[in-house]
Give the backbone structure.
Amino acid sequence: MSVDLLCMGEPMLEYSQLPPETDGRRLYLEGFGGDTSNTAIAAARQGARVGYVTAVGADMGGDAFLELWRKEGVDTSTVIRRADRPTAIYFVLRKGEGHEFLFYRAGSAAAAYGPQDLPEAAVTGTRIFYASGISQAISESAAAAVSTAIDVARRANVTVAYDTNYRARLWPAARAREVIHAAVGQASYVFVSQEDGEALTALRQPDALIDFYLGLGPEVVILKQGRAGALLATGQGRLHLPAPAVAAVDSTGAGDVLSGAFLARILAGDEPEKAARYAVAAAALSTTGYGAVAPIPRAAEVTSCLERRTG
């Protein structure tokens, strides 16, 4: 199966904490996570033809992901199974209105991925290649594999999209800046959250962050601002796109949904502004349920939301 969007990174089994029981017990909803896997599924639910590059364990977690991607229509022909490495897991812990993450990913199958594993023909055969800062943060070999994939894509005139997704616990700040900003400089579409931008640049004002990231070379920068929506920026101007009001209960993975929905609409032929409006609505809708994957909306839900806003 040929795909139009090829995502690369680390999938993780997810255990998301639900509101506590009256007796104080902590209950967890089992699901799926991993930023680029979330993005792949979000794009597929909007109608894009999507594939995924990764490695998973030859374990129950790996089986579960392969079944998930099959159901979601994400091509898995570039997924490696490793008998000697596990599929990573993480917990989403509630903290007031926010959440914290507890990861068990050291030595995962995806972290062992290296340039020698890269399916170059799949990279050169897609229209958009997508990765993130997390894709590169999990190990030096994974960082090298993503960098190689970006080089392969650019030589083949494949569009590169990249989400900074900075996680300070995964690597030193100086190394993260070096690798992430090098990737940003080779991407056409870049997604960066307000928090990531502040941590990576020490800049605070949204316009200053946009100036910085546009200055690295991408054609389009989307600055994700959570409940406030997003800022869309190009060399020709910038525009604030407010998020629709929704009954949000869990924002896990919302930024990943924004990236996937945006890329799906770009592949469908939308201009960046229209694609970004759609993506902001999709991200907002994804916060109305628990977990990273289950609440990702499908195209009909997003279209209905946009029609209600303009009707």
About this structure: Residues 140-155 form the longest helix (16 residues). The CA atoms of residues 137 and 170 lie 6 Å apart. The first strand starts at residue 5 and ends at 8.
